[in-house]
Amino acid sequence: QVQLVESGGGLVQAGGSLRLSCAASGLTFNDYVMGWFRQAPGKERDFVAAIRGSVAYADSVKGRFTISRDSAKNTVYLQMNSLKPEDTAVYYCAARRNIATRNLYEYDYWGQGTQVTVSS
């Protein structure tokens, strides 16, 4: 049974930083693309970043967010710097095999989400 468990969300002032973690179990971690998505109230769930060998970022976070993974811990991270109020959302971790994609419908497994709130 695959499980993805996010942690690290919280309340931060604009300009601050947070690091999200997603611990994966029940899968062969190195076979999977790990992605981060976010969903603000009343909006669609949007791609943020993905990593397997290479990385990809949404334009809105490029230069501020960094995705990384630790295969020894089966964990993927999202370091978020220079946070803005518009980054406020529930952040979800997701996994799919093989090829990275920005399309959320192509991800097979999802975590429960962690709330990030950025105050102005």
Word description of this protein:
The chain has 120 residues and is mainly β. Helix content is 0%, strand content 53%. The protein is built from no helices and eleven strands. The strands form two sheets. Strands 2, 4, 5, 6, 9, 10 and 11 form a seven-stranded mixed sheet that branches. Strands 1-3-8-7 form a four-stranded antiparallel sheet, with no helix packed on it. β7 and β8 form a beta hairpin. The mean pLDDT is 96.
Q: What is the fold's blueprint, element by element?
A:
Blueprint: E1 3-7, E2 10-13, E3 18-25, E4 32-39, E5 45-51, E6 55-57, E7 65-70, E8 75-80, E9 89-97, E10 109-110, E11 114-119
Parallel strand pairs: 2-11
Antiparallel strand pairs: 1-3, 3-8, 4-5, 4-9, 5-6, 7-8, 9-10, 9-11
Distance between the termini: 40 Å
Number of helices: 0
What structural class is derived from the secondary structure elements?
Answer: mainly beta
C-alpha Rg (nearest Å): 13 Å
What is the subunit arrangement here? single chain
Low-confidence stretches: none
| Helix content estimate | under 10%
- Principal-axes geometry comes out as globular
Mean pLDDT: 96
Roughly what fraction of the amino acids lie in strands?
Answer: over 45%
**Helix-strand string:** EEEEEEEEEEE
Q: Biggest sheet: strands, sense, closure? A: 7 strands, mixed
- Counting DSSP E segments of at least 2 residues, the number of strands comes to 11
